[in-house]
């Protein structure tokens, strides 16, 4: 397999499974974590390597290294020529993951997708039937859809993030440090903030639409993160996907290890106090865009760009927590009439929105 984002949490878990199950790692790519990358090269001996930071390229301990100047496209084409069709795990973070998803499918790779933005901003340009999702919620939905009746409604769950119990009035003064304290999952900074705002769940709703073609999608808060997805079928039955919160399970199925013992089964007594709550739209303002986004999925490109820029501003302590949802609504008001009918237009709006938010909010 090829792992894009090998130094992140998904990449590290994928390589952990490769180690445990003796799987061949053909190529590795990361943004800038030279120390981790060199350690992975030593252990897995990949044929090709990519590091986004051009200045670090000479320091990578490998003969065949690509960097940003070469282009991720050149790296993937070289992988295709050298390795052929294989599993491509795209665990890049952010908008930069879109191009590898589009090109990976064109090159015939078996795409295991952990990059949310690929579907949020570019679902219309991807053959979603050929994608295996790496996400506890979408893995849960895929698992439940095997040999089932027609769908009535898809349901995904949310933990509520770091501020589920905090007074809404106090959110404007929420600190970065507090926002990064996710109660159940160990994730990167960006996605942890997205969990605190429920933007992450908004993105997962539109991902589910692109993956499974259903627009009747809801989310409920389940604070223990033990029930990841439910499906209501037209015959009146409902199924649920239940497991401990461990991303190795979704990754294992994506790379063909679905019949192996990956994690321990959940003790069902842990389900005694499970509750499902409606998403409080006063607390999680951005999630109120769910129905509008499902009606017009293309605006995901605008929402993603605004969120990307304003979250970076929050993490660098330049803006307040409440500015995140403000910026998203602001960008939609400003750019909602922009036509998004090509990959080029998606790239263009990504830059326009980020530039606008950067100036307006001083990020």
UniProtKB/TrEMBL annotation:
1-deoxy-D-xylulose 5-phosphate binds at residues 116, 136-137, 159, 182, 195, 200-201, 204. Keywords: Isoprene biosynthesis, Magnesium, Manganese, Metal-binding, NADP, Oxidoreductase. Coiled coil: none annotated. GO terms for molecular function: 1-deoxy-D-xylulose-5-phosphate reductoisomerase activity. HAMAP family: DXP_reductoisom. Belongs to the DXR family. This is 1-deoxy-D-xylulose 5-phosphate reductoisomerase. It comes from Campylobacter porcelli. The gene is dxr.
């Amino acid at each position: 397999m090829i792992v894009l984002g090998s130094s992140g949490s998904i990449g590290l878990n994928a390589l952990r499974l490769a180690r445990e199950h003796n799987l061949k790692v053909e190529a590795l790519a990361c943004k800038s974590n030279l120390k981790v990358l060199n350690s992975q090269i030593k252990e897995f001996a990949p044929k090709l390597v990519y590091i986004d930071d051009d200045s670090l390229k000479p320091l990578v301990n490998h003969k065949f290294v690509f960097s940003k100047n070469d282009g991720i496209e050149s790296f993937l084409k070289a992988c295709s020529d050298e390795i052929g069709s294989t599993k491509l795990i795209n665990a890049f973070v952010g908008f930069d993951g879109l191009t590898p998803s589009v090109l990976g499918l064109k090159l015939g790779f078996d795409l295991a997708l952990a990059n949310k933005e690929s579907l949020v901003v570019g679902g219309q340009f991807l053959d979603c039937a050929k994608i295996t999702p790496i996400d506890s919620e979408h893995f849960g939905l895929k698992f439940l859809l095997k040999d089932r009746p027609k769908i009535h409604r898809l349901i995904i769950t949310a933990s509520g993030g770091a501020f589920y119990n905090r007074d809404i009035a106090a959110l404007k003064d929420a600190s970065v440090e507090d926002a990064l304290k996710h109660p159940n999952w160990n994730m990167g900074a960006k996605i942890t903030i997205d969990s605190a705002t429920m933007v992450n769940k908004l993105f997962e709703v539109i991902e589910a639409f692109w993956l499974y073609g259903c627009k009747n999608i809801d989310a409920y808060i389940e604070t223990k993160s033990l029930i990841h997805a439910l499906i209501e079928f037209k015959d009146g039955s409902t199924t649920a996907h239940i497991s401990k919160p461990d991303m190795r399970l979704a990754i294992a199925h994506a790379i063909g290890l679905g019949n192996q013992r990956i994690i321990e089964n959940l003790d069902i007594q842990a389900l005694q106090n499970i509750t499902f709550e409606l998403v409080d739209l006063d607390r999680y303002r951005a999630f109120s865009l769910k129905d509008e986004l499902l009606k017009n999925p293309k605006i995901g490109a605008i929402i993603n760009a605004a969120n990307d820029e304003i979250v970076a501003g929050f993490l660098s302590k330049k803006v307040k927590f409440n500015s995140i949802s403000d910026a998203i609504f602001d960008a939609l008001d400003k750019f909602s009439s922009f036509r998004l009918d090509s990959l080029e237009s998606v790239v263009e709006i990504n830059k326009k929105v980020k530039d606008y938010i950067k100036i307006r909010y001083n990020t």
